[in-house]
Every structure is written in C-alpha cells, then in structure tokens.
Amino acid sequence: MLYVTKSYLPEPEEYYEQLKRIWASGQLTNDGPLVKDLEKQLQAYLGVEHLKFTTNGTVVLQMALKALDITKEVITTPFSYVATTNAILWENCTPVFADISPDDFNIDPDAIEPLITENTQAILATHVYGNACQIERIEVIARRYNLKVIYDAAHTFGASYKGRSILSYGDLSTCSFHATKVFHTIEGGCIVCHDPVMERKLYNYRSFGHRNDDYFSVGINAKNSEFHAAMGLVMLPKVAGLIADRKQVASWYDARLNFDRIRRPTISPDVDYNYAYYPVVFESETVLLRVMAALKADNIIPRRYFYPSLNTLDFLPATSRQACPVSEDYSLRVLSLPFHPALPEAEVERVSRIINENV
C-alpha cells in the first residue's frame, strides 16, 4: 500500500543517544534540558530570537490569538487544514473568509480589504503547501487598518522568503512538527515571536499560566516532553538532506506528469522552497474522482488536501459563510500525491502513469 506520505525515522541508535540524556537527567517534561537545547538550535537554524516548543501546531494558533487579545473578527483563508479555522472558533472569535489566489492558492490580498469592518482585529493566513503568502501586501493592509498578522506556517519548515525563514514574518508565526512534516518531533509545534515580553507571555501560557507558586495569567498545558525533543534534536541536522531528497522526488513527478491536463500552484520566485507536498489540480472533480479510483485500485492512497473549502463547513456560524468561489472550486479538484523523501522513482513512475491514463 502506497500512502500519501511516510514519516521519516532516523536510525534507532541516533535516537537512543539522545534518550540517554533523559535517563541521566531524570527529567521527562516541564522544560527539561533537551527541550531547552532544541529551542536554542531551532532559533539558530531559523534565524529567530524567540521561539517556544509546544505539543502541536494547533494549540499555538490558539495561544497566538489569546496573546494578541483577539476576541472579534479574524480574516482567514478557506484553503487550509481545518485547525486554522478551529483555532479561531475555539477562541470564540469569528472567522471571516477571504478567497484565495488562483496562482499560489494562498489568501488573496485583494479579497482581504473589502471584508474589513470595525470588528476586524487580525489576519490569520496560511502559507499553503510551504509557499509564502504575499507577505508585503498583507503587511501593508495590516498597517493601514491596525490589524495583527498571524501566519499559520505549519508547512514551511526549511523554506525561506527573501533570504529569511518564512517563520520569521508576521506578529506571530506558528509551525507544526507533526510526524508527516519535513521536520518532525513525532508530535509537536512551535510559536515564533519578536520580543522578550511576548516570549514570556507565551512561556506562561504554555505552562498553565504559572511557575511553581507564582501565577501570572490564564494558561494551558502546551508543554512538550523530553522524548519529543530528543527526536527533534536528531532530525534537525537532517533537514537539508531531506529537502534535497524531496526535491529529487518532485523532479521525477515533474518529468512524468502530463501538465497539458493538470496544473500545480505557482511557487513565488522569492521562496527557497522546502517541497513539503506535491499537489496537482485536475480539470474537474469528475476527473479527480476517476483518478482517485484508479489509484486506489492499485493500492495507492492520495489525499484531497485541502477539502472541503473551510467556508462551507456545517458547524460555522451563519456570519462566516462568505462565498469563496476560487477556493470552493479548487478544493473539489486538488489532490496531494504520494510524496516523501524515500519514495522510489519506480513508484513515482507508477503513480504518474495511472494519472496520465485517467486525466
């Protein structure tokens, strides 16, 4: 069975070496030495000064909204994983959906400004598939209307925009270190900010809002363990090689797929891409379903990523059901193909042949 992704695992001996540090310290969680070490290494790797390691990439979106005192309307993208919208709803804010660009599949800056009201407090945008949003245009809009900018950068680890990590943009930026990501800690995530005051606020949020008998604020348990940090410490030096392997797999697809009948998102020329996913868009949902059926008949399991368009979710409040025709259209036609750094060329050939025969 060939699935849409396969998590990378280092050699067991490499992981065991980090585990020995846990046994030596006797500390399993609560800001242990491996967590602190990983945070320092991530800051150096990403070129950022303030980063907190957390349990996952969803809780950091909730923490970001809370830390910026967002309580009303948040303009966001309908073309993302559901966690982006769920975080807004969980914090009792109102998602307002701006449609996406037909080129890069990211939130369309031209669609943002008409949606701004006196209740708009923030823009929460996703760098879809690891490709940067139109950052400068979003920043101009945010400054004009005094809005906060939060980036869901779950897909972007190892990618840069204009020479800087994509995670370094926005008022706050978040990332997922889930097992399927380019860099993973099995489960995990992080939040990046730009000053020590905000870092201390997030530090307190992450640990129930208190340290020992000193209570500072509302909080949540977003701490991650030494075991997860150990995986991150082993994985981090491998990121460049894994991205190079992903680039090779992408080139095999590029050479074999029939792009007369399918298309891919446009990657910004200012992005040093991390090859997080390999999405393709078909001419219609009918074609997509035919291709999926043919792939599944040969034990190949792709994923409709992202589907459905989030503005169509049944549990949204009525005020959040803005029409987003581009996102609604693309979500019906987009498919993420099997893609991971160890995918053999022969499997790429098999997937591509089945797709070409059915488009």
Give a short summary of the structure:
The protein has 359 residues and is an alpha/beta fold. It folds into 2 domains: 7-237, Type I PLP-dependent aspartate aminotransferase-like (Major domain) (Aspartate Aminotransferase, domain 2, 3-Layer(aba) Sandwich); 238-358, Aspartate Aminotransferase, domain 1, CATH 3.90.1150.
Number of strands: 16
Sheet with the most strands?
7 strands, mixed
| CATH uppermost class of the largest domain | Alpha Beta
> How helix-rich are the residues, as a percent range?
25-40%
**How widely separated are the two ends?**
22 Å
CATH superfamily of the largest domain: Type I PLP-dependent aspartate aminotransferase-like (Major domain)
Silhouette? globular
* Mean model confidence by pLDDT: 97
Strand proportion, as a percent range, falls in 15-25%
CATH fold name of the largest domain:
Aspartate Aminotransferase, domain 2
Radius of gyration from the alpha-carbon trace, in angstroms: 21 Å
Q: Which CATH architecture of the largest domain is right? A: 3-Layer(aba) Sandwich
Number of contiguous helices: 12
Order of helices and strands: EHHEHEHEHEHEEEEEHEEHHEEHEHEH
Sheet with the most strands: spatial strand order: 2-10-9-6-5-3-4
Q: How many domain units?
A: 2
The unreliable regions are: none
Which structural category do the helix and sheet elements fall into?
alpha/beta
